[in-house]
Amino acid sequence: MNGAASYSADQVADVGELLGKELSAHTLHSVGLALLGPDIFKDVGNVVADRGAMAQFLINRLHAAGRLAEAITFLRNEAHASSYLIIALNHILRGRRLSDSAALQALRNTYEPFLKTLATHQLLPKIMRTVCAIGLGAPHCKIIGTGFLVGADRVLTNFHVVEPFLSVKSDHSVVQNGAELYFYFDYHAEPAPKVPPDAAACSVICVAAANDWLIHARESLANDGTDAVSAVNTEYDYALIKLARPIGSRPSRPSGGALRGWLPLPATIDPFALNQRVMVFQHPQGIAQRWDIGEYVGLDPSGSRVRYTVSSAHGSSGGAAIDTEGRVFALHNAEVKSSNSNEKLNQGVRIDLIVKDLTTHVPVWNPAPPVETDAFHYWSLTDDVSNPQPIIGRTLFRDHVEQMSTQDGGRVLVVSGAPGSGVRFSSKLLRRILGIQSHIVEFSPLQLAGFEPAQFLDMLVNRLGLLTDGVAMPEPQATEGLSRWVRLDVPRWLKPMLTVAARNEAYRYPAWIVIDTILPPESLLKWTANRDLVAALMGVHDPGQEFVDLPELRWLVLSRHAAPFSLAEVSYLEEEISDLTRYEDEFVQCMQLAWRCVESPDEADKLEVTQRTLARVANILNQKAPENQRQPLREALATHARLMVMEGLQIVGKTAPRSG
Amino acid sequence: MKKEWELIRVAQTLLASGGTLESGLSTERLTEEQIAGAVEMQLQYEEARLAAREGRAPEPQTAVAAAGEMLRHARTALTKSSNLSDAEFASLEAIVQVIGRPALRFVNDDVESPNNQLRENQRWHVIIADTRKHINAVARSVGRLLIEDGSVTADTLAGTGWRIGSTLLVTNRHVALRLKPGKSVVDFGAVKAAVVKVEYITPNQDLRDIALLRLSDPGTTLPAALPLDWSIKSVEKGAEVYVIGHPWRSHASSETLQVFGEADGGKRFAPGYITALDPIRPFFEHDCSTLNGNSGSCVLNTLRQVIGLHFASRGVEEASALGVANAALALGRLETSDLTALLRGGAP
Q: How far is CA A249 from CA A206, A263, B23, B330, in A?
């Protein structure tokens, strides 16, 4: 279509009808202002209250002014090519009526797609760990806003959040004017961290701004958040800040884990997508991180801000406004003071405009997307770096657990070793690897020996939260052997419950059951009935024998010896941990990861030689110790690793010296 | 004089900020229109409550007239540094409550939110929305002490107390001295308990205005003991604190002011900040809105742990006559003694 194109009456009517359905009143207002200026709605009268009438009024005016083609071009440039708006527009411009295609109507989503539980569960942690509270040092000394990582060492926030430390020149360029900026990650619970940070141990990670921290910034807009907002030149109210260290490329937790990562910024958004849901991650009033979800309502009069119904407060400025696919949609910046007092709206600056501005003015600002990997390791069982519990080696165990998280990765893992070798540590390590959301049910030797099978099953069902729906546990039939009950009746009873549970809470499955069979050498575990039950639930059977598969379960067997009972026809993995031959490598690996997590990756590499030496010294000292003080080697190394981390953190001032 | 100066200072601070941009540093002043609107809304709310209690139709025009009068008195008060009239003092107090230091009621054991979001009321909105159930849980362990069981009047309300240990209640000495063991009760709302005896009380000359009361044990229904925070770091100037207590105020001299601030001995939640630390004595001052009847209230930190015992309110005559605005005894600054042992251990 070109500027001289003419449109039929039907086309004009259909375009008006289309915009009336697909654009919010706010966006219609913004589009009208952009194309026809502020006077367009002066004589609009009561039409404003009726979105359809407002759209038709606007289109008629544009058509009368010979500017409808220009408006269509504008919509095409702004909206997503695959959105219903553009598809329907093309349909109309090809001479077809809006109402004459059932297929076209079918494209129109009545609902925003429902949020997927599993996808949201996976998305939220990735976003949460990139969001930070921002504190200004003297003279303010308080948390005043929010920001989020957009690179390993880059945070995006609002200009007005850090404005006390900025100066604007006559050419509207912005320079930094102050240095005490602090960025608090993982602030999820009160009390609030201090500004500036103190040495008190807490789970919040504080990163200061780099010396030359301001990468680029744009001023805020006069009357932002009101209907009287002025036209935007470059007043995008943002500041891109460099951090003192690249926290985004470090493990997200002091004990290891997934890389923190950052949020990639999209070059385009769909500002016309009505009813799409928006989530804003924020620190309202400087409290621990919160988020809220609401609906996208439309553009502000300047067309540079997007408005939504998400809750926010002072302190939320700089928050990440995210769509339900996890894409950044806007940089939250203001409460909206609308003439319509019934509306409670907030707004953010369109992220595509910020990206366009950065791309134009900042060379190489856009970092490569964060590397996603499923493999991540922990060096400690806990995040408390002042009291770490180092993990020496056990790479094979971690690999096995990772493999078993897949459908065909094996159902049973047997960990064996002499008493004191650290076999029982495996269950703690399992919890660390899987996290708190996964089901892990542990049975001690006492329970295995003392429970009746029915009690074993009761505990299993209760701990997994399975819904029996009133179907009672089957009882062994007098006419049949216990073997059939164990092998078929019980698994058949469990199977539908597990299927439902795994479907409803997919992120908690597969569920793990830990069978601890370790007793002192002179003792023998007497657990025949439960052993047979466990074996049956694992899927142990003779070739050709009927059995019931329970794919939602995984088993960790802790034993003094390999293969504590027959695992016929069941694929299983093994780890024998008594022999620790490559202890230097395992010690160094632990220390290297520890240093990467809590201090500097560069320093970690430099310390490798020292760490190898220390590992050898630890081994020698342990062997020379009196027999009653001698530890299993892995435990001795863990003790030394713990001391090294604690002492090292005190030296660099990250923790206070321990008393006593 | 210091009380008035403190009030004026708080009012001026609260009036000096606002704005739509959502940084925690707000620099725009509140407009008079915003304040007037907020005061009017608050008074209409109070008038509606009063009308409901008196069984009559609400008279919104009374609230509008009262708002106008209060604002006139407040404007005058802000030009002074001392010698405020009763009406000026009360009006300024009312303004302070409306724009940042509210004394929020509990309705059906649920704390209310402020009627507006001006200035720091927005913060309290967020805090209450975020921690409502925790605030309500703590409030259940705070009760009003009545000299004799019966209706709540200026003569029967002795003050406030809060639970520690298995059957103990903490309050002020000057509150305890008004009680009649065997006749006096503490009313927590959901449950009442008789005051059996005074377990511990500081001597009259002791600046620590505190007493521990033994309650009867009505089975297992006494509210839970409150957690105490003994850390000296929790008592810092500028720290955010909350007071829960049972304020009481008789009607002010002005008929219009009767509409506002009807403090009927009901439980209130009053947020604010620590404004000063006594350099020598274990006391601190705060700017939470309190009245007579708040004596014995608990002062809580942001984790809802008790850090202090309120003992003096602005504008209230107190036996201690320390000349402070709102004053509280700081747990973290008490020297180790029998008292601290009792507070920590709860006594057998």
A: 15, 12, 28, 45
